[in-house]
């Protein structure tokens, strides 16, 4: 019953979306774009039962898994068709394959229609042996991330975070602080390896089907700023928000206030709104408003730093500062630490628990957590850079010579390791990002 209701609502959502897409190929006015996009967003918010609609939602249970990514694709089609960036609308079959493709339905990546169409309409060609090896290796790597590293991080996180709910009088403050820092760090590792591992599997399966999917991660924890981080983490979602929210808002405000003195304020406003919406998109409760606010604060602070520091140091002085290894490592650490602390909103699901934790830690506790996480990540980052340098110089040539054998061996070892960890932890891997 639940599945049939969910399928019916999904079909209705897709049908309404296609009606708006058909209209977008005829009407190109800004009024139509705004009306169609707002209508789809309102329906989406209602179906997702956001916190301000909990009392007037549909009076039965249903699933909304995949709805967010379908919305991204529908809005993209509406806007691009109306603006003339797409010369002809997709037929209904192509529309369904694009919005509900089995590899990207659950959690992306968010592929543009033009990129999808080019591959959807091309003539199939036989897959080569190197392509099979590359895809299978990618799938094995993904399973290793998801079912080994991610599972271990989740195991540690679950056992530590549950202790934070104990009454404050039972545990010393230092113990609570240690448990929180470890919970924050391991949850970040769990989220990254679980999500990026899933993306590796999806992209690998796409490769076997001769369908190239866009990358969603590019070493995000090597970022030296919060804004750069979001160019490397969940990249297809970040690019979507940049294309369909950040840039249009910037253009609208700059046309309305063309004076140069307003440019900084407009930029900060665009960053704040974009990151706030991105944060709220992750969930339907009030906690995600706090998460979005923290993301917006991080983005605006980063932009202010990039704007103000060159005024004091000069452009040359700022460029020289950016070349210093110590500065870059500290920036990496701060980026990781701030993002990890903000992720607390993703694993504490309600406002009372979040406020209770804030009361236990206080401003001092959060400050210490930020400092300790920054320092620990700087040490880890330095060791990681050294390991990668040694691998590149000592092993890359050897690996290139034995690539087929090494790939097959790695895949087999990965399968065995996944089975071993699953047996030890007594649970199969789950995909965390489907909840968002």
Q: Which features does this protein show?
A:
mainly alpha; 436 residues; 2 domains; 16 helices
In short:
With 436 residues, the protein is mainly alpha-helical. Helix content is 74%, strand content 0%.
Q: Main sheet?
A: none
- Helices, by number, come to 16
Unreliable segments of 5+ consecutive residues: none
- CA-based shape: globular
Compute the separation of the termini in Å: 23 Å
Proportion in helices:
over 70%
Radius of gyration: 23 Å
Structure, explained:
By secondary structure, the protein is mainly α. It has 16 helices and no strands. The longest helix is centred in the C-terminal third of the chain and has 44 residues, at 351-394.
Write the layout of secondary structure elements.
Elements: H1 2-24, H2 30-48, H3 67-83, H4 92-100, H5 113-120, H6 129-161, H7 173-208, H8 226-229, H9 235-256, H10 263-281, H11 287-322, H12 325-342, H13 344-347, H14 351-394, H15 396-401, H16 403-425
